[in-house]
UniProtKB/TrEMBL annotation:
Catalytic activity: L-homoserine + NADP(+) = L-aspartate 4-semialdehyde + NADPH + H(+)
Active-site annotation: K205
Keyword Transit peptide: no
Organism of provenance: Desulfuromusa kysingii
EC number: 1.1.1.3
Name this polypeptide is given: Homoserine dehydrogenase
Highest taxon above the source species: Bacteria
Lineage: Bacteria, Pseudomonadati, Thermodesulfobacteriota, Desulfuromonadia, Desulfuromonadales
Length: 435
């Protein structure tokens, strides 16, 4: 067989990492494949910038057609990111018979069904290990290593920026804003961190993982998404007193006839492994009916970790081509005609435990009024903290509830907020005590 030729769209941080991996480990790659692959063309808006790697003249171009319409290119790696022009380039490459490797979680979460349908029609592969959790091989684990399992849940810490911020807030007792500023100075957060800190990046990833685990399609617009920007050092301190840590948790659960897919700050017990995932690291916890709970942990982002995932996909497709296989593993892990739409449970219907922090006027009978409203909606109190207040006029009351329905919590809080004893909006954080 002739040499497998690769075209790369995007020569930024991850693209540079791919070239570095390709060059540094070329001998290892060939030993593992028993075959040669060649990085034939790289497309970028700036064909002359110094990326710290040496390439043959003419490899870097500004013309995307030299990759997506080049009959010699077998596999296209897309690292532009965003929806457009990445989507149009990928669809044209597929129409030209190219296999696709991408790290574009936003594109796959929102437009993945269209891309996968086009790939299935053309008989080419689309692989996106690098789109979720960087160097952690979570997608291949779901699609191949653990594929005989029925998965009941998937929980993940999937955004290094948020995990760094929450870790620093926990360790230093700092509030959100100064830690975000530090994360930006260290390069862990973007100049505009909205997608990260408001949970959108994590929501893209859990949408993909839930679809892979549960054999369904996930409408991204239905994924409940809440970020960490309202978390305070006070809440982190109270969580610690109760034996919990706060993490931005991605949650997917399978009930057979419906699923949960949601992202929000979550309190998890200190005794659980996910609570010990700190800094910029990621972790994913799968629960299968045969394998039980399994935790995968590692670098969730960065040049080298993401490049490792990209090259793993390139090598998997190359192995298929060498062996004459065609899309040996279905793109979403299930045969296309076996993927069934399952409704996503409305947030109002989920069952959770809840941390509630009320800021109330300092007068007798306050707790009785709050407890009365909670009891009216069948919400029972599991534990309580009522520290001395430093403010002469207000006092915090912190409650942990037993399992309750979200709709009942919302109704109770709406009633409590109308009482003349509440001086500030109530803080609510969901709790997962039984992972």
């Amino acid at each position: 067989m002739s040499t497998i030729k690769i075209g790369l769209l995007g020569f930024g941080t991850v693209g540079t990492g791919v070239v570095r991996n390709f060059q540094r480990n070329a001998v290892t790659i060939e030993k593992r494949l028993g075959h040669k692959i060649e990085l034939a063309k790289i497309v970028d808006r700036d064909a002359t910038a110094d990326r710290g790697v040496t390439l043959e003249p003419g490899v870097v171009t500004t013309d995307v057609e030299e990759v997506i319409s080049n009959p010699e290119i077998d596999i296209v790696i897309e690292l532009f990111g965003g929806y457009e022009p990445a989507k149009s380039f990928i669809l044209k490459a597929i129409a030209n018979g190219k296999h696709i490797v991408t790290a574009n979680k936003a594109l796959m979460a929102v437009h993945g069904q269209e891309i996968i349908a086009a790939a299935n029609q053309q008989g080419v592969s689309v692989m996106f290990e690098a789109a979720v959790a960087g160097g952690i091989p979570i997608i291949s684990a779901i699609k191949e290593n653990l594929c005989s399992n029925e998965f009941s849940s998937i929980l993940g810490i999937l955004n290094g920026t948020c995990n760094f911020i929450l870790t620093k807030m926990t360790e230093d007792g700092s509030d959100f804003a100064p830690v975000l500023d530090e994360a930006q100075k260290l390069g862990y957060a973007e100049a505009d961190p909205t997608f990260d800190v408001e949970g959108v990046d994590t929501a893209h990833k859990i949408a993909l993982l839930s679809a892979l685990c549960f054999g369904t399609t996930v409408d991204f617009d239905q994924v409940y998404t809440e970020g960490i920007s309202k978390i305070t050092s006070m809440d982190i301190n109270f969580a610690e007193q109760m034996g919990y840590k706060i993490k931005l948790l991605a949650i997917g659960k399978n009930y057979g006839d419906q699923i949960e897919v949601r992202v929000h700050p979550t309190m998890i017990p200190n005794s659980y492994q996910l609570a010990e995932v700190n800094g910029v690291f990621n972790a994913v916890r799968l629960t299968g009916d045969f394998v039980g709970p399994t935790l995968l942990y590692g670098s969730g982002a960065g040049m080298d970790a993401t490049a490792s995932a990209v090259m793993g996909d390139v090598m998997a497709i190359t192995r298929d081509k060498i062996s004459g296989a065609q899309s040996r593993v279905p793109i979403m892990g299930y045969c296309a005609d076996q993927i069934k739409a399952l409704p996503i449970k409305a947030m109002s219907e989920i069952i959770s435990h809840y941390y509630l922090r009320f800021t109330t006027v300092d007068q007798p009978g306050v707790l009785a009024k709050i407890a009365g409203s909670l009891g009216k909606y069948n919400i029972s109190i599991q534990s309580m903290i009522q520290p001395e207040s430093r403010n002469v006029d207000t006092v915090p009351i912190v409650l942990m509830t037993h399992a309750a329905k979200e709709a009942d919590i919302s109704s109770a809080l709406a009633e409590i907020e109308t009482l003349n004893i509440i001086s500030q909006p109530t803080c609510l954080i969901r709790v997962e005590p039984d992972l």
